Amino acid sequence: MLITAVASLLAAALIGVQLFTGGESQPTTATGPENEDYPPVVSGNGPALTESTPTAPRVGIVAGHAGYDSGAVCPDGLTEAEVNMAVAQEVVALLKRKGYQVDLLEEFDDRLAGYRADALVSIHADSCDVPGATGFKVARVTDSAIPEAEDRLVDCLYREYEAATGLPRHPSSITDNMTNYHAFREIDYYTPGAIIEMGFLLDDRALLVRRPKLVARGIAAGVVCFLEE
Ligand SMILES: [Zn+2]
Predict the structure, then answer these.
(1) Taking Cα atoms as reference points, which of 136, 122, 150, 149 lies closest to residue 61?
(2) How far does the centroid of ligand 1 lie from the alpha carbon of residue 159, in Å?
(3) Alpha carbon of 89 to ligand 1 centroid (Å)
(4) Which of 14, 152, 193, 208 is the most buried (most CB within 10 A)?
């Protein structure tokens, strides 16, 4: 944690200079297959096109627990972190195809300090030890500086994720860990942020593990809903 704090301070002192993004902390972002499929481009003139521009929307996608820990773990060894990453990479690919500028971020990514974007979504999944529990939920920080925008982001994610996956909403299990999520305290006040728990690793496992592209479509559509509707 100390190392993270020091790195965050350094990164904050170097806002705009992405020196800390090319290091060892993001093995899957710079060289992953999703980047080979959708290389960054620098021309074009609108978010509806397939090329990104400096004015294209910027979106941050946090692959929950990446670079930090495993998150929830199932008895057979399936980890929340690997489920989150598979979906996060698909979300990034989908949004890049929309022409957005997209950052795939780790749980305690140095870039989160003062992060400025049109939206930030952190992707998580729920525990593997609650038999009978099914469903997803979305939350934003409690004391938001931009409650209208963040409520709209949350609403868009609820609506589109529900439509794509058919999963029920499970708002009764929203915890302080979601509404006080650490990244909400690190990013710029005016970056709309939300966290989604995509489903439960026990009863929703088939969907989350076998259909990551479908799950990702729900999240990406929620972001597009927020930015374009
Ligand atoms: Zn998690």
Answers:
(1) 122
(2) 21
(3) 16
(4) 193
